Amino acid sequence: MPKTAKKLNAKHFLFSVIIIVMFALAAYIFSSEGKLEEKSTTVYQNMNQVQVIGTRLGQAPSDFVAITTEGSPVRLYDLIEQKKPIIVYFMATWCPWCAKDYAALSKVYKDYENNITFISISLDLSEDFLELREYKKKYPELQKTIFAQGQEKILIDYGITKTTTKYAIGRNRTVVYRTIGAFDEEQWKVLLDKLVKG
What we know:
This protein has 6 helices and 7 strands, in the order αββαβαβαβαββα. The protein is α/β, with parallel strands linked by helices. The strands form 2 sheets. It has a 5-stranded mixed sheet with strand order 5-4-3-6-7. Strands 1-2 form a two-stranded antiparallel ribbon.
């Protein structure tokens, strides 16, 4: 066979091999595309089953562990497991609006203390649990509430910039209410009633 014919045959053979490899690769991609799509769908469905964590209504609140005035750690998700509504309240011992809130709450809390968990967290990171313990003594009607030291991560997770910020977590384990500002006695009653009956 002449050299030119051999070269042509070799080129033809190489071209054929490249074409076959390309077809095989295309067939592999198209056949595995269904599997990839199926896998993506499964992952998407699993993600849908995870509750969204955040501070908006209907979201699961961000978990935290804080040190109480008794010097022991308290974890939010452990409190949620008790299936009672929870109010997470952000305060400071020097805040006059917090004092108004606690004075008004003191008048009504006795009727709800067995059905609601109330946790106050200081947004002033310089306040330790000993200072908070002394402050809590000013409100004997609130002795069944929890006072705890603040932490930077908690304040960031909850977007806290102001005292009197209140988060209410319902029995469905999601944020059901959020507000800022001091309440009077009637406002506390409305909120606590809603949580107990909700």
